[in-house]
Amino acid sequence: MQRHRRAGQAHAATRQGAWVTGYAIGTAVVAVVLALVSAILAYARSIGDEAPKINAALKQAERNTAPLAALQTTIEDASAITSGLQRGRARLGG
Prior knowledge:
Helix content: over 70%
Shape: rod-shaped
Structural class: mainly alpha
Number of strands: 0
Radius of gyration: 39 Å
Distance between the termini: 127 Å
Number of helices: 2
Strand content: under 5%
Largest sheet: none
Order of helices and strands: HH
């Protein structure tokens, strides 16, 4: 009878150790996830803090490059002028 009692106590101790191990692993996993989520949120906040500066720089770049849209018109006008000059030179025999 004592033999069965000791075996039952050993089995209960083993089950209790398994629970403790499970809780320890679970706690470690939760701690790692918490650390990763905290790092991601901190990174997202820093990106959010920089967003207005980036937006302002992009608007400035848009203002600075807007005249390039009229570049094709300038090229067409210059081509018309140079072709007129070439025709004039040809008429003059040059």
